[in-house]
């Protein structure tokens, strides 16, 4: 059966989705953006026949089977629910999944109720370096994993979501048992229209005892590729497009690998189509897995709000960071709103 795709949100990441559909021979029947010129630009670049500024109108008129949601995170939940209720079969929602655990639950509920396959764009699960790293860890190249560590920038929900998900992926997707975290927000900082912290750090404990220590936007970034895994018999370093570096008790020096493979954006869409067609049991970046990452990130914020360790499952459905800002708990000391993506 030929599938028909549509793209909602025509910013920078939309081109990666459009390229993926084109590579798989899936026609893109429409694109949508609240800024018509953005939709027209994407349509011109990829020969997309229909342009809309209202996603509901597009869903009603075009009836796509597959939809990529590439808008800002604040709109992900509403658009996902609209797509599910309009008869879309498969949704690839960009990261972060949404802005709160309550929104994630609403998205999953709507998709289950309408028999829609929902995946989240945690694309490192398809990136060749991360696939090689996962294989090596599973084969025991570093013994039993003990600790993971990562440093990133651009906000916890924006880029931290990628590396929390990648950490889980590398060690077999264990559930989180507890988290503890801290944030600083002394400036009125935004990321694509959403309020975010200035910096964030903390620790996650996964089932089985493996810990993940994380830093987001902290100064003096450590000299690591992207994510490190420490085991009983070695250390592994991995980064997007940077390959894998392995040091093991079994040999001296670093073993460096540069695996090649299919574009991760193509691979995640290919797997979504297979899931919709019943050829794949579950997408490796399903909405349920996306929810697990949202729960961890919201628990990090809740740890700050409650001033202590937070055990799973998290009962708080709102975004604790938003609550703290609204209640004046995180006082801005340097007034002047700015958006790190719109400067």
Describe this structure in words.
The protein is an alpha/beta fold and 343 residues long. It folds into 2 domains: 5-123 and 264-285, NAD(P)-binding Rossmann-like Domain (Rossmann fold); 125-261 and 293-339, 2-Layer Sandwich (Dihydrodipicolinate Reductase, domain 2), CATH 3.30.360. It is built from 10 helices and 18 strands. The strands form 3 sheets. It has a 9-stranded mixed beta sheet with strand order 16-15-14-13-7-12-11-8-17. Strands 3-2-1-4-5-6 form a 6-stranded parallel beta sheet, with helices on both faces. Helix 5 (101-113) packs antiparallel against helix 9 (287-306). The chain is globular and about 60 Å long. The N and C termini lie far apart (44 Å). The model has no long low-confidence stretch (mean pLDDT 97).
Provide the low-confidence segments as ranges: none
Largest sheet: 9 strands, mixed
CATH topology of the largest domain: Dihydrodipicolinate Reductase, domain 2
How do the strands line up in the largest sheet?
Answer: 16-15-14-13-7-12-11-8-17
- What helical percentage do the residues reach? 25-40%
Q: What value does the average pLDDT take?
A: 97
Number of E strands = 18
Alpha-beta content class: alpha/beta
Radius of gyration, whole Å: 20 Å
CATH superfamily of the largest domain: Dihydrodipicolinate Reductase, domain 2
What is the CATH class of the largest domain?
Alpha Beta
Form type: globular
**Number of individual domains:** 2
Distance between the termini: 44 Å
Per CATH, the architecture of the largest domain is: 2-Layer Sandwich
Number of helices: 10
In percent terms, what proportion of residues is strand?
25-35%
N-to-C series of helices and strands: EHEHEHEHEHEHEHEEEEEEEEEHHEHE
């Amino acid at each position: 059966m030929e599938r028909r795709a549509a793209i909602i949100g025509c910013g920078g990441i939309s081109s990666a989705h459009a390229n993926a559909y084109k590579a798989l021979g899936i026609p893109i029947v429409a694109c949508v953006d609240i800024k018509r010129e953005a939709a027209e630009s994407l349509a011109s670049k990829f020969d997309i026949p229909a342009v809309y500024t209202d996603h509901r109108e597009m869903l009603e008129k075009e009836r796509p089977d597959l939809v990529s949601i590439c808008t800002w995170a604040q709109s992900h939940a509403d658009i996902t629910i609209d797509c599910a209720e309009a008869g879309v079969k498969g949704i690839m929602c960009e990261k972060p999944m949404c802005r709160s655990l309550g929104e994630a639950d609403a998205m999953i509920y709507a998709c289950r109720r309408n028999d829609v396959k929902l995946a989240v764009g945690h694309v490192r699960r398809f990136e060749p370096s991360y696939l090689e790293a996962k294989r090596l860890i599973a084969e025991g190249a570093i013994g039993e994993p003990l600790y993971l560590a990562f440093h990133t920038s651009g906000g916890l929900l924006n880029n931290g979501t990628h590396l929390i998900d990648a950490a889980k992926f590398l060690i077999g997707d264990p559930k989180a048992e507890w988290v503890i975290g801290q944030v600083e927000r002394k400036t009125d900082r935004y990321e694509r229209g959403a309020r975010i912290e200035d910096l964030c750090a903390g620790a996650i404990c996964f089932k089985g005892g493996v810990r993940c220590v994380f830093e987001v936007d902290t100064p003096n970034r450590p000299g690591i590729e992207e994510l490190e895994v420490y085991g009983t018999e070695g250390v592994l370093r991995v980064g997007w497009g940077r390959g894998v570096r392995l040091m093991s008790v079994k040999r001296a020096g670093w073993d460096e690998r540069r695996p090649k493979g299919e574009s991760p954006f193509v691979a995640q869409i290919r797997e979504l189509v297979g899931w919709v067609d019943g050829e794949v049991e579950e997408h490796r970046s399903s909405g349920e897995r996306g929810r697990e990452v949202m729960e961890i990130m919201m628990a990090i914020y809740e740890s700050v709000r409650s001033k202590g360790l937070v055990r799973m499952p998290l009962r708080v459905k709102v975004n604790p960071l938003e609550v703290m800002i609204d209640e004046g708990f995180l006082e801005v000391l340097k007034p002047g709103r700015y958006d790190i993506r719109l400067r």
